[in-house]
């Protein structure tokens, strides 16, 4: 672990992040706030998958389709999505928290998630909006879970951060690790890899299998989409899954295309 004087910038950011966590943690977990309910509740869709899966392209395309049908779609991402969470994002992706271990990183992802859920996701769902989120709690299960964090700690952090909130649909975009990493390298260009993308290929393979295990365990919530297909074909598969999960969209639709 670096000494305090070695990287003061990283420590300041980490300290800010931990203070944000402390503030948002207070009073949580005593009651389960429950999922946002009621007929006017919006719909919560998350996108998950390994590096270079094409999530950001597909999430934008889904937002466009929903908007064309008159739905109010909010596009967001994790870690980040709200101002407090963006500070934590920087700490995590720069690798500043890596030396503290996988459990500390899991706590920081949870800290970012609390801010994001409280300030953006829950209010948007209560206002009847569609929330499309690029990564969410399954990424903690997969990345920190395969990184050695105990499932019990992950469950506890999830209870605190989500307070009963659950995605209505999770689209897991699946593709072989080598293809995803090659795509991510092209997208990144000359920029450095982030802390998680830089991991060894075997670790990425474990993550892929962990996403598939979540999909197998929760088939009513998750749909696995073949990410090796063309962007148009992936978009069509995503749309088919969304229509299947939300029959109310059918009334706003012509024949499938
Ligand atoms: P990002 O630049 O958003 O990449 P991607 O396009 O792959 O989504 O980086 C987010 C990284 O953080 C990604 O490598 C996955 C990782 N991550 C976790 O390890 N745990 C989490 O809970 C979340 C949300 C992301």
UniProtKB/TrEMBL annotation:
It catalyses: dTMP + ATP = dTDP + ADP. One of its GO terms (biological process) is dUDP biosynthetic process. Keywords: ATP-binding, Kinase, Nucleotide biosynthesis, Nucleotide-binding, Transferase. GO terms for cellular component: cytosol. Coiled coil: none annotated. GO terms for molecular function: ATP binding; dTMP kinase activity. Its EC number is 2.7.4.9. Residues 47-236 form the Thymidylate kinase-like domain. It is an enzyme of class 2 (transferase). ATP binds at residues 49-56. Pfam families: Thymidylate_kin. Phosphorylation of dTMP to form dTDP in both de novo and salvage pathways of dTTP synthesis. NCBIfam families: DTMP_kinase. Belongs to the thymidylate kinase family. This is Thymidylate kinase.
